[in-house]
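Sample pair:
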Amino acid sequence: MNAVHRDPEAIALGHAALVEMRVIAPSLVFASILTDDGFELTHAPDSAIDGGRFASMTSSVQALSEAVTRELHIGASEYVVIASSAGHVLQMRIPGQPLILAALFDTHEMLGKALSTSRRCAELLSTQLRNL
């Protein structure tokens, strides 16, 4: 799948998955699906957050987390959590795709629910993209 971030079907599927994610977890502030090299596929909801910058930072953090797990020989990186006093960012790979899901939740969401919601979205999108 070349240039997935420009594929209209992939973009529509990604956007629908993020919208559903927000229905399940109303404390979702912003979520993005992006390529390994930091190109945004889509994001939701519309926000003052700079989607391009968010995608670029996410790509770098993902690469760093994978380098750490590789160097320490502890297996594959499953997800990354960045926790702060005003919320948390969760990011993970979309299984079988050159894509990453990154989601910002406010403090009203328990980390467990944010993680399960993110995993559900990533798995659903993985299945849908495989069937394109």
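The chain has a mean pLDDT of 92.
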